[in-house]
Design a protein that fits this description.
This protein has 70 residues and is an alpha/beta fold. It contains three helices and three strands, in the order H-E-H-E-E-H. A three-stranded parallel beta sheet has the order 1-2-3. The longest helix has 11 residues. It is globular and about 35 Å long.
Length: 70
């Protein structure tokens, strides 16, 4: 995540990371905006700033658009 932010000139505080399982925890913690697909209770729930209850890509895009509006 840090390498991608460096490549595009943004900070980790501005990064949005979407994950769903325990292997995403480090990136969820690093990102300024952590989003999880929440279809079951697992440890990623506690690392997320936002959660959505579907894995529908269009819902995800709408959610990210809404949470980034100033």
């Amino acid at each position: 995540l840090r390498e991608i932010c460096d490549k595009y000139g943004c900070g980790l505080d501005d990064a949005i990371f979407v994950g769903d399982t325990y292997n995403d925890i480090h990136a969820l913690r690093a990102a300024g905006h952590a989003v999880i697909f929440r279809d079951e209770e697992n440890e990623t729930v506690y690392e997320a700033d936002h959660s959505i209850f579907t894995n529908d890509f269009n819902v995800l895009v709408d959610h990210i658009f809404e949470m980034t509006q100033l």
